[in-house]
Amino acid sequence: MISLLYESDFRDKRDAVAHLDDLMLGKILAAVTPDIRLQNAAREVLERPLTDPAQVEYRREIVRDFAARKMSVERLSALFGGFGDIRSDYNDEKSRLFRLFGGRADSSELLGAAAGAVQKLIELINEIYDILRGRTPKSKGLNALKERITELSESQDLRYLYNLAVKFHGFSSAENTTETELIIDQSGKISGLGLISTQKSERAQKRAFGRKSEPEGGRAALFPEEAGGIISASAKELCEAFEFVISSLCGEFLRLNYDLNFYTFAVKYCDALKNAGVPAVYADLGDDTDIRGLYDLYLLMTLPEPEAVVANDFRLSNEVKGMLITGKNSSGKTVYLRAAAMALIFTAAGLPIPAKAAEIALPEEILLQMASAERAYHGGDITGRFEEEVIDIKQIADGAAPGALVVLNEVFQTTDYTEGAEGLYYILELLNRKGAKWVLVTHLKRLEKLFEGDKRVIKLRADENKDYRVLID
């Protein structure tokens, strides 16, 4: 099965990154596009950052192809959505016939509907083929899709199946007698498919409530009530063959509508970065993280004057244990943290980021705890907030794996400053022993003393001149 999100059979089974809306993800998505479907597709991808550079590059190639405007991603997405519509319409018709005949609808009653669905599916494949055949995409994903659609559209078997579907579209067992021959093996492959005869029954023959009256001298179709429920083996097998085609084609291509919704978002996101007037790059994927001139996505997408957003640098080398960020209120610490976290998440989704240059080491997982005004705590008071923070931190400490990046914002601010700093210090040391890195924004001054002399912890401070720059302390 072809996927435009993953190369080969790769699937990431990890849990989604929690609390991304604390980084204003929902508002960023809404600023890029008002389309809820596209927002949801982008969210599901962003919540599961890739860890394999080859998978990231697979997506990037496709984003570049669509961003180059050589083919319409919106048109392709709409067409692939047609596979779902056709399957849904057929299932609805099937349900209607079963209700109409009291749960006893026979295959011959479904034959016309199944043939009509197959006809529409093949016409849909040909329409997609018309779009792709004149294009020369550079990405592996779109080339694989083009090859598969071309193989189907140019297949003699599919053309023959289309002609057969046209003949049986609108078939009614009350009006037609049919003889066909075919062989279906255990894998569902059809061979030896041939139409022997199809003819209209005498007009005098009538059917009412499942009964039939046979005209004098006329040949009547067999109905479910007769001969132990056997009507026509060929009609039954032909209906089964059509249903297999419906299941196969829809199963193969239906998911691509979801994939293309993400790429439709990606193109709109690239346009939004261009409109913001800031540089945008695809980060080099390496062993260290070094981002130059990084902008905060939320501010870029929501401020009326994005050029007013201040860029910062963010560096987290392989040897570093963590990063400690301090400074006065409203000095840009949380914005800095959010910009860095979003850069990692968008890069791991295969998207460009707003920066002058970037090298990024993909984390094995990203764990967030944003204990600030962004989070609506359920406790409603200081005690309730502290308890929820403790629960969140415990889950992070328990679940952190080697290669994880833990992003923390102003945790344990509501307890005694000394106790809060010491407790947090031991938690951060535990994370390092488990092989995880951390980035922490805090007002707990004692933490600086506790990490004093530890050269593997970077100390940053927000500039007191309130120009929103973050500097090495």
Helix and strand sequence: HHHHHHHEEEEHEEHEEHEEHEHEHEE
End-to-end separation: 52 Å
Q: What is the domain tally?
A: 2
The fraction of residues assigned to DSSP E strands is 15-25%
Number of strands: 14
What does this structure look like?
The chain is α/β, with parallel strands linked by helices. The protein has 13 helices and 14 strands. It has helices at 25-32, 36-46, 53-67, 73-100, 107-132, 140-153, 156-168, 233-276, 297-302, 333-348, 382-399, 417-433, 446-450; strands at residues 176-184, 190-200, 206-208, 211-213, 284-285, 289-294, 312-316, 322-326, 357-360, 365-370, 404-409, 437-441, 457-462, 470-472. α1 (25-32) crosses α2, α4 (73-100) packs antiparallel against α5 and α5 (107-132) crosses α7. The longest helix has 44 residues, at 233-276. It is elongated, with a radius of gyration of 31 Å.
Summary of the model, kept short:
This protein has 473 residues and is an alpha/beta fold.
Record keyword descriptors for this entry:
473 residues, alpha/beta, Rossmann fold, 2 domains, six-stranded mixed β-sheet, four-stranded mixed β-sheet, 14 strands
